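Q: I have 260 residues here and want to know how they pack in 3D. Can you give me a structure?
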Amino acid sequence: MTQPNRMTVSKVSALRGFLAAGFLCFAFASLADAAEAVSFAASDGGKVYADVYPADGHAKATILLFHQAGSNRAEYAPIAPKLAAMAFNVLAVDARAGGSMWGRSNETAAGRGSGASYLDALPDLEGALHYAEKTWPGTPVVAWGSSYSASLVFFLAARHPNDVAALLAFSPGEYFGNTSVRAQAAQVRCPAFVTSASSADEIAEAKRLFDAIPARQKTQYVPMQGVHGSATLRTDSNPRGAAAAWAAVTAFLNALPGSS
């Protein structure tokens, strides 16, 4: 007669937890290995730090990823590899208006000291744009922002209409006092994707900016479940809504000229 297995349920659970933890450590290590740390000059001088995730295969475009307030490029640690797997070059940037969210310091902010305003970070976005054009010449550039940087990508696209091929804005708003984001949105003619958290006030603010965009190819994704900024794509931040948000983002990116 076969003897019953003596391993208890608690030991099985512990073993499963150990294996799962090991797998997660391996996965995060693999993601870190996939990124190459780089630096470049902001348009007003000074050093900007970033991570590069090369496209898997021939690159459709280059995506510039900019973070929210108090944050850094680690905001995109689980996001950038997915975009690279979709055949996009990815540059995840530490802008000078940021901090130590996600368990990582913001190198650009640390190098410049405290006190940078949100608008002060625009030259960092312009530096990223110039770096992308030099590093991947002839490849379209897509600007992607989160919270305050979601508003800054409207400025970037308005000021560089021949260089920004599309933009994605996650939770944009009027974050800059008397400097109007809506006025910048009204100058954007490239394809645009705008989304927000699922709260009524964020949806309304996103719509106000979305309605100002004169571009013919534009999408406002209104989530049933969503959180502030690009974190809406992270399952650790938005477990119930991340998959639907990814589906909307993927549909938009796949519809861009040259992405098929």
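Q: Anything worth noting?
A: The CA atoms of residues 235 and 242 lie 6 Å apart. Residues 1-32 have pLDDT under 50 and may be disordered.
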